[in-house]
Amino acid sequence: MEIALTSLHWVYLAFILFIMAMLVMRRDTILVCVVGILALGLIATDSLGSSVSGIFNSFIYAIKELIGTILIISVIVSMSRILIRTGINEVMVAPLTRFIRTPAMAYWGIGIIMMITSWFFWPSPGVALIGAVLLPVAVRVGLPALGAAMAMNLFGHGIALSGDYIIQGAPKLTADAAGLPVAQVMEASIPLVAVMGIVTTATAFWMMRRDLKRGTFRDGLVAEAPAGDSGGKSDGIPMAPALKRVLAVIIPLLFLADVGAMIAFKLQGGDATALIGGTAVLILIGVTLLAHGDRGLEATTDYLIEGLQFGFRVFGPVIPIAAFFYLGDSAFADLIGKLPEGSHGIVNDLGVALAGTVPLNGAVSSVTLTAVGAITGLDGSGFSGISLAGSIARMFGASVGGTDTLTALGQVAAIWVGGGTLIPWALIPAAAICGVSPFELARRNLVPVLIGLVVTTLVAMFLV
Predict the structure, then answer these.
(1) CA-CA distance, 65 to 319, in Å (whole number)?
(2) What keyword terms does UniProt attach to this protein (predicted)?
(3) Phi, psi (rounded to 5 degrees) for 181
(4) Out of 132, 185, 246, 421, which residue is the most buried by the measure of CB atoms under 10 Å away?
């Protein structure tokens, strides 16, 4: 499995470290990413023209990959705007205020609901459902929108996705690569997922409470939270109280029907997201026609435009970053130029090279699998590198044992880093639905996730 690293690999790694440093310093990284794309293009093609073209092509690729997420966020925002301005959201969330009375209850309640939902449907559609319903309640009881985004993100894209016990997409990939039964990898992952989840979410909550008390908490708001509290104002769009009550019942029932359809027809991922998005569009049209009467047709267009403007305003700064990180995968050959001979993607090559330079024992193997998982997660997918983690775990396990634990550890590290808790563009759904900066969300997650990875790796050392 040895791979010869070239200047292409080292330059990519250098820019990764530079980008991470800029995020820690709270500086924008778009310029760094564009320069990184250009530098990689020059190294791979020796052509300035091709390198410059590669910048634009990589942007197009990133937009194509992100367009589904952009649209679901945009239509949810459009729907939320009309619900807020008519006051329907006030009626809809009123019963929930009986159960969620404090910021702590909001944080843990949103997180647990998000985790359960994400086990069945994966996190992206879960964010849309939960954000639209529970975010207004959380904001009203004092939980910052960024805190709600942290809860949805850590419990959904972190805990639920790293275990993936219902859909079993992640453990299937790692188990196949490690030559193990899926059930064995899933069983081995339970203590690791539990430790990682408890440590990370508890640390994030403690740090948030500490900073709120000190007055140093940055809310990270980039706009009014799309599903946020309207403060009881309907913005001059009157609606009969009886009609608002009826719609406040019908709208949640429609989304519950979506959940039933997902279960009945086994809709997951993009299919589940599309169902929720289509339902949100129909709700937007129906409520707008009822609220605006003769102006309903024009008002529907206005709300859609407003939602799309919000979506692209939030996603715009992320597209160049996504473009850079996508180059770490096999997309490089299509967008920029030929990869080195025998390469399976820059990020995967770096992971293989790391695994080939360490001694074989339980402790070092655990640290290596965490590092390999984290490195392969840097492309922002989380899933692209977990097969590599399984292969390396199989290699190490042949010498030190504990192949199932090492496989699960690599899976947990890859998905927590790349599945949507640290890479800014990967955690866009939670950030956008809460109206906060994805970069600020990534900064809030950084220390808790790193502490969680350290503790989880220590636990894995004793289990190997």
Answers:
(1) 10
(2) Membrane, Transmembrane, Transmembrane helix
(3) -65, 145
(4) 421
Question: Cα separation of 323 and 49, whole Å?
Answer: 18
Write down the H helix ranges in 336-384: 346-355, 362-376
DSSP character string of 134-180: HHHHHHHTT--HHHHHHHHIIIIIIIIHHH-TTT-HHHHHHHHHHT-
Strand partners of residue 199: none
Cα–chain center distance at 266: 22
Helix axes 319-326, 7-24, angle to 10 degrees: 150
pLDDT of 382: 65
SS3 97: helix
pLDDT tens digits, 377-386: 776 666 766 7
Task: Give the C-alpha separation, 172 to 178, whole Å.
Answer: 10
- Cβ-contact 76, 132 below 8 angstroms: yes
Locate tokens 């965490």: which residue?
A: 370
Q: Which of 7, 16, 5 is nearest to 325 (CA)?
A: 16
CA distances from 331 to 16, 196, 230, 337, 345 (A): 17, 31, 43, 10, 8
**pTM of model > 0.85:** no
Distance in angstroms (rounded) separating the CA atoms of residues 73 and 75: 6
**Which residue type is seen at 187?**
E
Measured CA distances, 423 to 157, 238, 344, 355, 361 (Å): 11, 42, 21, 23, 30
